[in-house]
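Quarterly update from the structural biology core.
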Amino acid sequence: MAESGMVQLGKGAVSRKSLRAMSQDAAILRMEYDRETTTHLVPGQGWVAFTYPLSWSGDYTLNGRHASPGDIALFTPRLGYVSQGKDVISCGAGFKTDRLINEISALSGQDTDESQLTDDFLDLKSASGIDVQRRINRVLSFCLDQELRGDHYGMPEVAENALYEIAAQAVLAQSVFSPESGHKRRSDLAIVRRAVEIANDIETPVTLSDLCRAAGVGHTRLSESFASIHGVSPIQYIKRMRLEKAKDRLLDPYNPPNSIKDVSLQFGFMNGGRFSGDYRSLFGEAPHETLKRSQRILRSDN
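Predicted structure, tokenized:
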């Protein structure tokens, strides 16, 4: 960050807590403080950021505007932000500008430039803003299970990719982009095949923007193609495909995984509980039950 600071306005001893998770290309910061305080932050060149309050007492302002539940502000090195409030729990996320623009372009199927990222509140409905906040908070919760590196937790690639996709979708949700033009409409099957090719590379976590980029279309066209060919959304299909691969991994008696968690992370599932729930829903048994069957097979062969 190019510039940051906090000034306590209310009298009395202040209680401040913070949690941060970081990688080379992304960061999440959660802050808590009780006394009336003003904070300011300007991201460094080449970075943009989101900030949003989760809870507060009385009024909470961002750049002079009163915040409401679900509000999210985007800020750049041009202005940054100033906030003021008390009994505040807030969260912020930082992104490399070029990479976020690439994500937005991939999801929209349109060229995007930095001018579309302006210092302002995202024009989201309250429910949509709260959903974005919850998704970012889930990424942070996942990172808090990683190794503590000095004053911050690590952010694995799967979490970093998820964070960029969340941000790109939020920006797109409040922006008006022209429909795809100038491109010959390719067959649904050709689009799906190109998207699935990249998803087959299990070494790399895959996001919706990755699929759009691989297929060369925006997310609307991609969704139409997957619905036509597979009857489900791209993410639903990729999730099921990877659950199948996870099952094969669990059933390999001669190269058993170290843990269920290792398998879930290998195939791009950040939340172990959600992985187990999706797995049971699809296969009618929990991952650990599949692993036990594999172990029985090995014992019977011996």
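The longest strand covers residues 47-62.
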